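Support request, please re-run this one:
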Amino acid sequence: MGYSPTGKLEDVTPEMAATGAEAVLRLLEGRWKLIIIFHLFARGVMRFSELERAIPDISQKMLTQQLRALEKDEIVARKVYPQVPPKVEYTLTEWGQAMCPALDALLEWGALRPKYENVHAHGAES
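Re-run finished. Output below.
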């Protein structure tokens, strides 16, 4: 456990966990970052124009800003090819790819909500 002083889960205080969660949320905040990450995880390598097509509701300016932030945080790598017209490709870094099991778990958790609401609603009627 990276944020534990001893590497053991039982040594993590609620304050340590909250600080770690806050740091992670700061890295991923913004409407589009997770969507960009999911597309890169699914496709591996994508050009800017492919990301634009894959996420039609994002503006070019916002896509650029989000990609720059992800690159600064070392979640996404940007490769520029010296050619005309310019060719730029984006991929997840090794660290970015390491996040994918956690994101999959988050999706699984999110998928439980409608089931919970249905069970909860039926339970309230009884």
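The chain has a mean pLDDT of 85. The radius of gyration is 19 Å.
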